[in-house]
Specification:
The complex is a heterodimer of chains A (155) and B (266). By secondary structure, chain A is an all-alpha fold. Chain A has six helices and no strands. Chain B has 266 residues and is α+β, with helices and mostly antiparallel strands. Chain B has a six-stranded antiparallel β-barrel with strand order 1-2-5-4-3-12. The chains are: A mainly alpha (155), B alpha+beta (266). The A-B interface holds A 11, 14-15, 18-19, 41-43, 46-47, 49-50, 53-55, 58-59, 63-65, 67-68, 71-72, 75, 78, 110, 114 and B 2-3, 6-7, 10-11, 13-15, 17-19, 23, 32, 35-36, 39, 42-43, 45-47, 49-50.
């Protein structure tokens, strides 16, 4: 049952990512990874983040930057989460607020420096702000759904 | 220790996917295509729902526009129907006038040229009287006992006159009587109304030989206009022992549809 719920939740994320209309969109995979990493240990969080980033890249990207970004985010969260004594929701929201812009900056930097792709910096800042705000707004909803349907089990 | 190994393994994997060209290798391509195939139903569902929703909105917009257009066309259709009905009425009236004019030219005898065109504006409502009200009266010079004719024959005579209207007693009225003559057998008789839509031909002796279908005209001995058609014999009855024959006459004029008549000015 728990597995089925989780699969449905993943399917919903993929469908929402597919349906989202504009260029400013919440990174639901990042929200999923952050909440998953907060709740689970690094042993399962890192492979899960790798897999989630990989699926995101396959579906919505031409390279594997999301795989790398999500894996690094998962590693960092696994390393710092035990040092922060906060409850699940607050910690998740703080991490969403911190890692949303960092992930965008990291991805853009890799794209610019490694893949030598042009980055429109004015648009980049707009995307940075809008995506962070959207991630935080959707973070509340995300956490509510996780709690309501006990996606990761009882907390 | 295990965690560190896992972290290192996946970090290296992620890095090699991006920087060591593994991302374009055959293995990754296979994994990629397999994952895409596995997730295709999800993408299909989401894309179908999006296109379905946008299609629904397009359809609703189309249906709304069509309903507006339909309403406009219906209103236009109603207006055109009314205009058509009005034109039909005008055409019908025009046909009546045209026929009247033509018949007046061709059929009104030479000595009745001084006739006044008039419209029927009223008809008797009870079965015991047969009369018309026409739209001309003493102001136009109409007098009592003036003969009234139509293109097909005798209609009746004027029995009452007001300045702008006149009352015409029809041949069908039970009080009407006119001396007529059969066209072929030259029998003179009296035609009078019977309120049944036909005329009775009276005082035809049982020895005379009128013909069915024979036309009747106003006799020259009548005060009315001689030579005007009155009707046609439709039935001849009575036995040889009777003094007179019983003869039914179909009036020449169709009183039901008569709209225009002529008053013969004296």
């Amino acid at each position: 049952m728990k597995m089925l719920k989780f699969i449905l939740f993943l399917a919903a994320i993929i469908i929402v990512e597919n349906l989202w209309p504009g260029p400013y969109r919440p990174d639901l995979f990042l929200l999923l990874i952050i909440t998953y990493c907060v709740y689970h240990s690094a042993d399962s969080a890192v492979p899960f983040s790798f897999a989630a980033g990989f699926i995101q890249d396959i579906l919505f990207s031409l390279n594997f930057l999301n795989t790398l970004t999500k894996t690094i985010v998962a590693i960092l969260i696994s390393m710092i989460k035990d040092k922060l004594i906060l409850d699940f929701e607050k910690l998740s929201l703080i991490l969403i607020g911190v890692f949303s812009p960092l992930a965008i900056i990291f991805t853009a930097s890799l794209r610019y420096f490694i893949y030598q792709q042009a980055v429109a910096w004015d648009l980049f800042f707009v995307i940075l702000v809008c995506n962070t705000i959207l991630n935080l707004l959707f973070g509340f909803l995300f956490l509510h759904i996780i709690k309501r349907f006990e996606i990761y089990g009882k907390q | 220790m295990q965690s560190r190994i896992i972290i290192i393994v996946f970090l290296v994997l992620a890095l090699t996917l991006n920087f060591a060209g593994i991302g374009k290798s055959r293995v990754v391509s296979v994994i990629k295509s397999t994952t895409l195939a596995a997730l295709y139903p999800l993408q299909w569902v989401s894309n179908s729902s999006v296109s379905g929703i946008s299609g629904l909105f397009s359809y609703l917009h189309f249906a709304y526009n069509n309903s507006l257009l339909n309403e406009e066309l219906r209103r236009e259709n109603e207006i055109l129907k009314m205009e058509l009905a009005s034109l039909d009425a005008l055409r019908s009236e025009n046909r009546v006038f045209r026929n009247s004019r033509d018949r007046q030219r061709s059929r009104v005898p030479g000595n009745f040229k001084n006739v006044l065109l008039s419209h029927v504006i009223g008809r008797s409502q009870d079965p015991w009287n047969s009369f018309f009200v026409i739209d001309c009266g003493s102001a136009e010079g109409v007098l009592e006992n003036s003969s009234v004719i139509a293109a097909d024959g005798l209609v009746g005579n004027v029995v009452a006159v007001t300045p702008y209207t006149s009352r015409v007693r029809l041949l069908l009225d039970i009080k009407s009587a006119v001396t007529v003559k059969t066209v072929k057998s030259r029998i003179e008789a009296l035609a009078s109304g019977n309120l049944g839509g036909l005329l009775d031909l009276k005082y035809v002796s049982s020895g005379s030989k009128p013909l069915i279908g024979e036309a009747l005209v106003v006799s020259s001995s009548s005060r009315l206009l001689p030579g005007i058609p009155v009707g046609y014999i439709t039935r001849i009855g009575g036995s040889e022992l009777d003094l007179f024959k019983t003869i039914d006459v179909q009036p020449a004029v169709d009183f039901q549809t008569l709209d225009v008549v002529y008053v013969v000015m004296q």
